[in-house]
Amino acid sequence: MPRKLPFRVIHASGQDESYRASELNYHSPLTKGWQASRYCLYPQDIVLQLDQRCRLRKIQILSHQYLIATKIEFFVGDVPEDMSPNLENARYTRLGYVSLSDNEKTGFKARELKSVHVDAVGLYLKLNIHKNHINKYNIYNQVGIIAINVIGETLKGPSDFMDPEYYLDPDRKGQLDDLGLDTYNKPDYISPLDDLAFDMYQDPEIAGIIRKLEKKKQEAVLQERFDYAKRLKSAITELQKVGEKLGKYEVEKRQAVENEDYDKAKLKKVQMDEYRLQVYRDLNLADLLETTGSRHPQVIDLEPIRQATPPRLLELTPRSPIQRSPPRTPPPRTPYDERPLPALKSKDTPRELPSTPPPRTSYDERPLPVKPPAVPDEEPEPAETAVGITGEPEPLTEKDLREASAAIDVFGEQLVSKAYSKTWSYREDALLAVYKQMQDLPATAPKDEAKSMMRASIFLVKKAIDDKVYAVFKAGLHLLKMILTEYVPKHKIQKQDTVWAVERSMQNLLHKSGDTAVRNRDDAKNFVLEMARYPEVKPTNCVPHEAVKPMKNSVAPRLGQSRCEIVEMLYKDLGIKTNSGLNIDNMMQFCVAALSHHAGEVRDGSERIIKALYKEDRQAVKDYLPADDDKTRKITLYRQLFEYFDKVDGKPSKADVRKKRSDEETKKQAEIEALQKQLQSLKDMASGKQDAKTNQSKPSNKPVAKKPVDENLLKADKNKKKNEPPKKSKIINKKPTADDDDTSVYNMDNICIFCGERNESFIEEGLDLHYWKHCPMLKRCTNCKQVVEIATYTDHLLNECEAKNNYSKCNRCTEAIPKSEYDQHVSEKSCNAAKSSSNHCPLCHQNVSSGEDGWKNHLMGKDGCKQNPRRLLSLNKNPSTGGTSKNKPKATGKNKKTPR
Fold first, then answer.
1. Among 36, 99, 103, CA closest to 73
2. CB atoms near residue 546 (< 10 Å)
3. Which long-range contacts (CB under 8 A, 24 or more apart) does 463-467 make?
4. CA torsion sign, 68 to 71 to 76 to 77?
5. What angle separates helix 765-773 from helix 654-686, to the nearest 10 degrees?
6. 379-436 per-position pLDDT tens digit
7. pTM of the model
8. Around Cβ 572, how many Cβ atoms within 10 Å?
9. Cα three-residue angle 430-391-456, rounded to 5 degrees
């Protein structure tokens, strides 16, 4: 008869680190299954090796809900008889393939189970898995298989592969092992217990019991014990429901463990244990699982199955023969899920069945348990039993007795011995017992008793905080929180005792903040911050005082980093107010000590705190640091700090100053060369060396300069060669006429061709300096620093400037407006509209008389442009001139040019 065949995965072409192919070897509700590696190449191969040569009858594949392959091909492999049975010698035969749905209709929540009926013989089964279906959840293009099941028959040799009629021969009925009466005439019958769906949704322990009951049922049918077989059938039906429910609980428990919700996980474990035990009692498995003709129950050795919770051995005790009692009416029944949970029992407590089984009732309809009346002569249970402390831990050593003498006087040696036990569950239960006793202590208890109990509990809390087991550590934090938030105000503990409790526990918490486990570090740091906010602790300021105590350079880097993070969090939360416990003095003392630590992460944390404190009080912070000089700035750490201080103060850093000087020197050299070239160009044009075409063209650019240049630099470079062609400039070439009294005015030496000023110093450097700083007809461009004529400044910004792409022309005032302000400028319509018959000043935005004289009167006259800063300098030099210079002849005739 076909049955479930054991196998193991011996080859996989790829696998995700969290979902290995070995997961396919086991079936349970917690099986994660196999997943291909991210962005793998297809097809992927998986090879299964059976325990021995078998005849395969059925293959089942449970696919992932969204990591779905488009199709899976099946190959059966066998090894010739003359070769050794290994994977290299296998010869494969293709059986066919199955296609899988894309699962879009189910919202990618349901898993598809594919069952393929085959008839092949071999030792290996290979799956060829093709590329995945595309969906929004499968972002890494993976495929996944939750479980694989192989059903068939074991062949002991080649002759065992016979025709199915072999099983129909009545003479061979006695040779069939473990077969029920209904399977003799069904050689292809496959039990539902071998189906993949059974193992994937059943609790493994319940599944093992069901299989044993199924075997017992088949034996009962052969022995014609039909009443017993009927009871077994009913029990199997109910156990299947129970197994599915327990499987669901197991999944919920595993999810709670992954989320670190250990309270919920513990509750689920207790719920499963109680549910399982009650079902076993209700079904009376002692009678159902008898292995001999005797009615006495035997010990049931359940087959081990891989599971997160290890299989439990049902311990059955011998009892007297069954005594039938008259039928009675059962009380009202209440579902199990609505009954209250009993007190937590130790995991070591054996499961004992009652000596006389109760009447058979459905578990979900059983009555509520009734608390038995108290027996006067019965000795009451110890108080520890109520919170789950059972059993006897190892006795305390002499050293432990001396160390814990104060706690023993308060809580007793039995409880303290559990706190010192090597079993972590005992240590956790001891803290829970202390928690319970302190909560139950009435508020009217004597002050001395309450104080001594708190001091004894702090001793156990310190030990729990240093515990390596996370559950014990968390129990210690819960106990400390209860003491500081509930116990202290309830019993009105004095302030000095509260400070003592916080200071003692803070030492261990700060040490725990340097633990290797991330969650231990985070919980310790968060609890310190939380403890600083407690109403009974915050006024004492003991948490900040303990946190900012300077640490030694020998402190471990992880601990030092956590100390800095704790101080930083306290500073952000409490500030440096007068009543916060933090101030510049104690924090800077802590930070200065941390700055000398050998670990970089500790120094970085201290540096962050110092930078934050500098914004609070700059001078006080600098008082704790070395002097700001070149020697100190050679140290990288202090240089970075002082540069940050300069940035906060608005000062340029020394590196920026040096860079700026270097840039200025480079620019000065370039500017000097450019000015010399432009000066030579002006001389050439003034002497008439420029060709006629150049003289008649309209000038577009003026001498280029970017920075003011002093005379010493010009004199130093006055002999440089000028090889580049000169810039175009507005030159008015005049010929003398008879009306002129002095022909010397036509001498272009020592005269500015723009404003007409004559000066003996206007030779080379002097004239260049005049263009750059003093000429009222010129200005420097704010973008490219080129010296241009004011009359052509708008055209320069729109057509010639390096930043011309940043300007647009206003059609109303004809000025160049920055594009960032253009829309607002146009929409407001507040600009002064330009007139076609006049010029428009780009400085004061007023309309100016047309012609060159109009520009000169506006830019150089007494009542001229108020926005031209060079106008007043020109008037001070020539107070008698009203704007138009007498030193320069007026242009007439064809040679007169109007500025743009």
1. 99
2. 19
3. 463/419, 464/419, 464/427, 464/431, 465/505, 465/508, 465/509, 465/512, 465/524, 466/508, 466/511, 466/512, 467/424, 467/427
4. negative
5. 120
6. 333 333 333 334 478 888 888 888 888 899 889 888 999 999 988 888 999 999 999 9
7. 0.37
8. 11
9. 25
Element (H, E) at 144: strand 144-154
Place of tokens 């060079």: 870
Give residues with Cβ within 8 angstroms of 665, minimum separation 6.
none
Residue-by-residue DSSP string for 709-732: --HHHHHHTTT----SPPPP----
Place of tokens 């996944």: 144
The Cα 104–Cα 135 span in angstroms is 8
What's the pLDDT tens digit per position in 501-511?
Answer: 999 999 899 99
**Alpha-carbon gap, residue 829 to 73, rounded angstroms:** 78
Distance CA 69, CA 142 (A): 8
* Per-residue 3-state assignment (H helix, E strand, C coil) for 208-234: HHHHHHHHHHHHHHHCCCHHHHHHHHH
pLDDT at 644 over 50: yes
CA 727 vs CA 401, 681, 786, 797: distances in Å: 101, 6, 12, 17
Alpha-carbon torsion angle 247, 251, 254, 256, nearest 10: -130
**Per-residue CA distances from 778 to 248, 771, 810, 874 (Å):** 89, 7, 23, 12
Q: Note whether 544 and 532 are within 8 A (CB).
A: yes
309-325 confidence digits (pLDDT tens): 333 333 333 333 433 34
CA torsion 344-349-353-354 (nearest 10°) is -70
| DSSP-derived 3-state class of residue 638 | helix
- C-alpha 294/C-alpha 375 separation (Å) is 38
Q: What tokens does 790 get? A: 């004011």
